[in-house]
Design brief:
The structure is a homodimer. Chain A is mainly α. The first copy, chain A, is built from 7 helices and 3 strands, in the order ααβααββααα. A 3-stranded antiparallel beta sheet of chain A has the order 1-3-2. The longest helix of chain A is centred in the C-terminal third of the chain and has 26 residues.
Chain lengths: ~170, ~170
Amino acid sequence: MVEDFVASFGHTALGTRLKRSGMAMQAVAQKWLQAQGCELPSAQMPVLAALHFHGAQSTGELAQMLVIAQPGVSRMIDQMEKGGWVVSSATDADRRVRRITLSDRGTALAARAARELWPVIDAAVAELCADLDGCFIDQIAALEARLSAGVMQDLLDRKAEERGATQ
Amino acid sequence: MVEDFVASFGHTALGTRLKRSGMAMQAVAQKWLQAQGCELPSAQMPVLAALHFHGAQSTGELAQMLVIAQPGVSRMIDQMEKGGWVVSSATDADRRVRRITLSDRGTALAARAARELWPVIDAAVAELCADLDGCFIDQIAALEARLSAGVMQDLLDRKAEERGATQ
DNA sequence: AGCAGAAACATAACAAGATATATATCAAGT
DNA sequence: ACTTGATATATATCTTGTTATGTTTCTGCT
């Protein structure tokens, strides 16, 4: 039995592999975040971070910043507003525009994430990708192997511990 | 305005970027395949290729080979059977098992793809990823830049032309 | 002022992955 | 032979992206 046909399919299926690896990384990160008591769905994290670092934005601006289609942002903001993470309102100058701000709850989570969650993920992923040698396709293969071996979970835990120990 | 916040977010959003790049590559490939008269949805292409190179498989075997969840295979096979690309039937030895085979139409498409479609994609992607220098995150950034510049479309066209010219 | 076209967002439907769970069948122990 | 547990697949629902299209509001021209 072929274990991973897609990986054996050369460059032809590279798109599939990149997508798969990306989803795997997101899944690991989300699981870890949940374990840290972070209730926000992982797909909404970039919105939170964008609003944290760059202040209030419109729907269209967020779509451009996050490079996702505008209807996706529309729906995501609805969900985040229901979850109490953001507040939105029509602007006075142009009443078509919906201005989105972090709520108190969202601000608090973003501050905490900036302090102790994102740096851990950043350090873990940086180390996950360190020493990926060879040509690009080999690097992807190495990354896939590390992900399926559970290396990223271990790194997240270790990095969190290290930060906790040194602070 | 920040153009691509995710890309500016360091390693933290690498998963999102990988996923995004993979989807972009798949989209370009699918568009090109359609232009070549290939009617099969791109997500079903790996199934076609797996059956072409490794013969009849069960639902579970396909899930393992393609590293996707079994319900996804179930649904995809339903669609492909409706589209006339595959035929499936319960096996005699174990009537729980659904054995999936390429139909005549599926066999014909796979043969054509193996001859003149997959090699083009392979060559194009190989060149797309050639000379990606630097550390992994820089390589991803370079890949993203090439994708958004439309380099992959151009390569597909050029590779197809080259193959056509030399054969 | 009023109308045409553009722009911002919302809504609907689709795609392709996921998980959770139900159903049907098989295998093994008594 | 029957019951119990495992296995293969199907079904239902969720997630998060997409495109297509509808609605509201603005802008600019006459």
